[in-house]
């Protein structure tokens, strides 16, 4: 937002910080428990950041919706309304993610098992920090806005000052004329209008609902069939680029030498005269 009071840059930064705290907590706990740290675990923070920022947006959207409903309510009522709207969505997202990664700990690959343990635990911490730390930040940010304080310095802004006397830069940084005032109510977000007026009535049509049920049944049947066909293992051809010489090599190896059984490696631990036939 262009208002120096309604700007929520610090709120967004705290949402990212919440994900960072979740990563630090999970990594610290897993290392303390002796779980091996493998190189694939280094990718986990990006997953946690994606889910954590998504939860942050859900919380902020629910908070803004609660403000529009209960403009004059106290902070406790606003936060309760926010958790009523957002907590269910965040909880379901976290449960599905945690379940998916903890199921991955059953694999026979130790590196994948470590990755799933680190990431699944980080999702749990991400949920805890979103429900506690970020909720507290929402309240503090609301109190800053109610006190007409600048988003960067938290200094009180003079709302009644005449903007015509000052430069554009000064008005943008130091005057809170665009803050939340009863005479300037904030409009509803265009995306919310789209879902309420167009998408919602469309998906609640009885024929569309029937089509959704049929599509979901087909999807469920395909998923069950896919689970029966899946095989655990790695095809080394998938690790190389399409134009790599490795792919024809593995194709020829499978075509001409697959009947000879597994490849046997021999390790010689002594010094040998390789020139002597």
- The protein's oligomeric status is single chain
- What does the average pLDDT come to? 86
**Number of DSSP helical runs:** 8
Terminal CA distance: 80 Å
Describe this entry's structure for a reader.
This protein has eight helices and no strands. It has 277 residues and is mainly α. Among the domains are: 149 residues, no CATH class; 37 residues. It is elongated and about 95 Å long. The chain starts with 8 loop residues before the first helix and ends in a 20-residue tail after the last helix. Belongs to the patched family.
Strand and helix map with partners:
Elements: H1 9-32, H2 44-69, H3 75-103, H4 110-146, H5 168-174, H6 190-203, H7 206-229, H8 246-257
Any key phrases for this structure?
0% strand, elongated, SSD, transmembrane helix, PTHD3 protein, PTHD_SSD, 277 residues, 62% helix, mainly alpha
Short description:
The protein is mostly helical and 277 residues long. The chain is built from 8 helices and no strands.
